[in-house]
Design a protein that fits this description.
Largest sheet: none
Order of helices and strands: HHHHH
Shape: flat
Helix content: over 70%
């Protein structure tokens, strides 16, 4: 079994001490939350990452998948639609 709970601890720590513009830890943190079924936390983290790095389409994709997994198809479609129009 994957150690998502342990990963959340490490990625949360990275969030506290991060000093670069590499926000990949937020993507990994959001993914770990999502895999554990913590959709609210996953969406919040992915949205935070998108605010910090608006050109990172991975945040939009992950948000689209999270919304899809909680049967919020309208918001899922909005995120996927947005990806298709990003340069």
């Amino acid at each position: 079994m994957k150690k998502y709970s342990e990963a959340i601890q490490y990625y949360s720590k990275a969030k506290e001490i991060q000093s670069s513009t590499d926000y990949s830890y937020l993507l990994l943190l959001a993914n770990a939350y999502s895999n554990l079924g913590f959709s609210k936390e996953a969406l919040s983290t992915a949205s935070e990452g998108l605010k910090l790095d608006p050109q990172n389409l991975n945040f939009l994709y992950l948000r689209g998948m999270i919304y899809f997994n909680i049967n919020d198809y309208e918001n899922s479609a909005i995120n996927f639609f947005t990806i298709s129009f990003k340069p």
